[in-house]
Q: What sequence folds into this?
């Protein structure tokens, strides 16, 4: 069982930056690939970024490439999402998730989410 707790959301002006953090419980964090998802009101949840258990492989959605950076610290059981050049369309609830296998689609554990609001 893995418990995930996101933090770092808030209100920021367009062009600004935020860094989201996701703290994971348990001693097996380094075995899990991690992902960040977001869901805006009235829209489907979409994947933003993902990182393999080692951190050597990453994925970014087209809408955030070049602006967001995912990273992890396995010693601290943390995964981060650095968000730069934020746009109003980045406004959403951001969720952290974990899965056992990098190559699979489905995630096994989810956090409760943190709100990111970007004002124009």
A:
């Amino acid at each position: 069982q893995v418990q995930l707790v996101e933090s770092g959301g808030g209100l920021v002006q367009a062009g600004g930056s935020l860094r989201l953090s996701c703290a994971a419980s348990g001693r097996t964090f380094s075995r899990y690939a991690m992902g960040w998802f977001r869901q805006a009101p009235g829209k489907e949840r979409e994947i933003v970024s993902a990182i393999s258990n080692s951190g050597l492989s990453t994925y970014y959605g087209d809408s955030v490439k070049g602006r967001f950076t995912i990273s992890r610290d396995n010693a601290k059981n943390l995964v981060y999402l650095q968000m730069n050049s934020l746009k109003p369309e980045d406004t959403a609830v951001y969720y952290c998730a974990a899965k056992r296998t990098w190559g699979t689609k489905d995630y096994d554990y989810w956090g409760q989410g943190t709100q990111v609001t970007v004002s124009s």
The chain has a mean pLDDT of 96. The longest strand covers residues 92-99. Residues 95 and 113 are 4 Å apart (CA to CA). The chain has no helices and eleven strands.
